[in-house]
Amino acid sequence: MVAADNLRRIDSKTEFDLSIYLKQRKQLCEEALEKSIPVVYPEKIYEAMRYSLLAGGKRLRPILCLATCEMTGGNIEMAIPTACALEMIHTMSLIHDDLPAMDNDDYRRGKLTNHKVYGEDVAILAGDALLTYAFEYIASQTKNVAADRVLRVITHLGRAVGAAGLVGGQIVDLESEGKLDVSIDTLNFIHNHKTAALLEACVVCGAILADASSVDLQRLSRYAQNIGLAFQIVDDILDITATQEELGKTAGKDIAAQKVTYPSIWGLEESRLKAQKLIQEACEELESYGEKANPLIGIANYITARKH
Amino acid sequence: MVAADNLRRIDSKTEFDLSIYLKQRKQLCEEALEKSIPVVYPEKIYEAMRYSLLAGGKRLRPILCLATCEMTGGNIEMAIPTACALEMIHTMSLIHDDLPAMDNDDYRRGKLTNHKVYGEDVAILAGDALLTYAFEYIASQTKNVAADRVLRVITHLGRAVGAAGLVGGQIVDLESEGKLDVSIDTLNFIHNHKTAALLEACVVCGAILADASSVDLQRLSRYAQNIGLAFQIVDDILDITATQEELGKTAGKDIAAQKVTYPSIWGLEESRLKAQKLIQEACEELESYGEKANPLIGIANYITARKH
Predict the structure, then answer these.
(1) What's a Gene Ontology MF term here (chains A, B) (predicted)?
(2) Structural domain that includes position B256
(3) Residues of B in contact with A136 (CB under 8 A)
(4) Quick check: is A13 in a domain?
(5) Which of A236, B43, B81, B95 has its CB surrounded by the most CB atoms within 10 Å?
């Protein structure tokens, strides 16, 4: 019986085509994002917001939110405003991260960074506006979800983005710059907050919208934290092994900045193994969902396999 | 009867002591703000947030929110998380506004600006964290208010802060810099968005929390837009007439930057008259609330009388 079950799951996994799934979902997200910010007076700020928000990217965060909402019994309609908000927040963090006072990056997703096109002042404001709009968008656009659940989504997302999450991770990252004795605990803190917290929010907010149980939320939180850390390890590996063309951003920056990374501590091969182990453990959290977990399992595996 | 009513109102106005009221309410806000952000690891970001949030100031925004909530039938407890959030957002806008890429100010409220103490990178992140925390704080801390009303508060506040509000005003302000032919319409747009929108949100959000009627919300919105514009006119006047010591920030900046201001268009005396007229019209919106409007009337008059 167990063997038959396993076989059926393997079959269904074969049937599930991740690349078609991702392509369709990405298209859905692009359309929703395109519609989310109309251009009105004063046009410059809306254009600056749209420049970075609509600059492509894999849209993994909104896709994760939609996938989790569906897996736990909700639907796309419920989750699409939160999915868009997650991408707005991710984009805002990239715009501010690229500023001269921060990482001072000229390219992002193969295009000039926001401040290179619009100036630093507008880029700071475009980030502020995207961050604000994300919360406004969830509060005003979410349909067919009880208001108290929407408030829980806003609370969870706020925690993932602010000083207790993404911003806290960036602060420790800045403090660690140029230091050669960064511990693995500090490195984990940085990435658990800078990268994993927002990915966790994508997944957990999708499940909150679908009114998932607290057991579900805990499972999904562990899944997301694992893929978040794996995502960062792979990012560090790609910074060493990929070309600028593949990345769409400056390659080899970590080495140039003498930054402590997972490969610099563990080496490339061990880093790859650790990432795979994290992904495997992430997928084990999803066993009880059966075939419905195919998208989340596929995305987890995609993270270690990606080339950019 | 009308005469007697007027007399009673004048008496009660005499009895209402604005300076005691503002002092007590400021104390209340200081205590709530002090408690709102505990310092945990990574300490630097919380310290940077607290440095600017707890740097004094008149706390007019949170006081307006509390006063309006009470006037329209709510209580302080309902409104205190939103009141704190409004001050967090105001503080965040000052931190980002003072950055070298924006106004490049070294002093604010008589203290070094955030980036002068913590560096530009931390100041950008402290602003982001305060903005995020404001929405999280409203969503997680508001008690005894129906969830759908809390969502309306978040929506209204988001609109007041983002591209359709404060940020939009800042963008037009930046575009107008160095131009000598800025029209009165553009100047009004800037200040209706850069200053009045957040003051309007203070008042309207306080009323939403108290479940005020849409007629009340419209009246209060007009009151707040008027005092917001008056506030800016008085700010422009003070930039010319007050000393740096009185202002706690660099004085005479507008003239040095050849900035078009209300006094530069209307002259000082006409500007004073216009501010007074706006305040008078603002107070007329409050007639139906009787004595309960004393705090809002007092604050409106305080705006034109203030020296810093």
Answers:
(1) metal ion binding
(2) 18-305
(3) 154-155, 157-159, 162
(4) no
(5) B95
In this structure, are residues A198 and A60 in contact, taking their beta carbons and an 8 Å threshold?
A: no
Residue type at position B206: G
Cα A183 to Cα A166: distance, rounded to the nearest angstrom: 19
Give the pairing of strands B111-112 and A111-112. unpaired
Per the CB < 8 A criterion, the answer to whether B209 and B83 are in contact is no
CATH number for the domain harbouring residue A23: 1.10.600.10
Q: Does A186 touch chain B (CB under 8 A)?
A: no
Q: Is A96 within 8 Å of A228 (Cβ atoms)?
A: no
Here the tokens at position A104 are 């001072």
pLDDT averaged over every residue in chain A: 92
Phi, psi (rounded to 5 degrees) for A257? -90, 5
Quote the pTM value: 0.93
Categorise residue A75: left if φ over 0, alpha if ψ from -120 to 50, beta otherwise: beta
Q: Find, in chain B, the residue whose alpha carbon is nearest to that of A131.
A: B132
Kindly determine whether residue A128 and residue B172, on different chains, have CB atoms separated by under 8 Å.
no
8-state DSSP, A195: I
CB A161 within 8 A of CB B132: yes
Q: The complex's ipTM?
A: 0.93
Contact assessment for residue B46 and residue B142, using Cβ atoms and an 8 Å cutoff = no
- CB contact residues (below 8 A), chain A span 27-46, against chain B: 42, 44-46
Name the band, by pLDDT with cuts 50, 70 and 90, for residue A58: very high
Number of A–B residue contacts, CB under 8 Å: 148
